[in-house]
Amino acid sequence: MNSVIERYKKAKEDHHYSMTATSEVKFWQREVASLRQQLHNLQDNQRHLMGEELSGLSIKDLQDLEKQLQMSLHGVRTKKDQLLTDQIQELKWKANLIYQENVELHKKVNLLSQENMELQEKVNATRGEIGDSGDSAVPYGCLSVREEADAPNHLELSRPLEQANGVQIGAPQLR
Fold first, then answer.
1. What pLDDT score does 8 carry?
2. Is the confidence at residue 27, as pLDDT, over 90?
3. Taking the alpha carbons of 119, 121, 127, 132 in that order, is the dihedral positive or negative?
4. 3-state SS assignment for residue 83
5. Element spanning 145, H or E
6. Quick one: how many helices (H) and strands (E) in the chain?
7. pTM score of the predicted model
């Protein structure tokens, strides 16, 4: 069996090498002529698709060309519609995320507003207990409330104190 395979391989190699230079040249010439014809046909087809040089076409050829253009146009419209649908879906998703973020921010603003009102009430209650004796600083838990006579109240949180290693100490203060 091995000898048969070896003889087959040798015969195949001999046949391959026996191809003369002239037969190889003729083969490549035929190949070049075939490729030139294909290129010419493709160029003609492209010109026809672009609406150029239609005068030599028959009614049947023009109908085929029209059908081909309609199918191509349908494919383009389908692709465009798909892209627009995908973009609309993505924008709806983003709008939903933004809406949810807006709701969360609205909740936080309401919570901060409520806390601000509570702090204002505590400041007013503390002011009522102490009386209007001019400037005073009243400690309130971890908050410090400063008052000046005849000045409007302005509440604002200050940044927490930090140690050198970055660990926060202290609490926010009201100024």
1. 78
2. no
3. positive
4. helix
5. strand 143-147
6. 3, 4
7. 0.45
